[in-house]
Fold this protein.
Amino acid sequence: DAKTTQPNSMESNEEEPVHLPCNHSTISGTDYIHWYRQLPSQGPEYVIHGLTSNVNNRMASLAIAEDRKSSTLILHRATLRDAAVYYCILIRDMRFGAGTRLTVKP
Amino acid sequence: DGGITQSPKYLFRKEGQNVTLSCEQNLNHDAMYWYRQDPGQGLRLIYYSQIVNDFQKGDIAEGYSVSREKKESFPLTVTSAQKNPTAFYLCASSAGQAFSYEQYFGPGTRLTVT
């Protein structure tokens, strides 16, 4: 099964950019990369997804490596409300690992 | 507002009792899912359903049962056979074919069994 690996935790200062990495070295050609985030005691929330090209939406940007074996979720200006666990998954696999716990410092 | 509702938010049961968790969606989504989350862990798939009256086991289906009698509803029963039922349970739905589009999650039900 395809898998993703992410750092357990990251810290950022408020209003600074945050780059959250994800490795998916066994990705297949048709696997979409999805990112979700989960606030404490809430269900996960969809953030962004992509296949090959970099993607932008109102929440974040997704940069996908040319070989598609890694991707990076970019929060352009972190706010305290962005403190959450961020999950990178391959949509057909839909297996959530432990994700990356992002702490945002004021 | 469209979305997924789960009830109740907190549920307490005695060991040996079956308990049913509710999940309703008004997004007109075809696929629905149930996940379990333990403290500090990711989500694990229990069951999913692509269409009414059809559902498939996920990675940890033992001790759980589901039904899909209506498109909008996908209740999960935690049976007494589930050895460690205390967990946070999340329901989700998505458009189209299962595992093809982004999933929308409900607020979750936290089940405590003593």
In short: The two ends of chain B are 36 Å apart (CA to CA). The longest strand of chain B covers residues 87-94. Chain B has no helices and eleven strands. The mean pLDDT of chain B is 94.
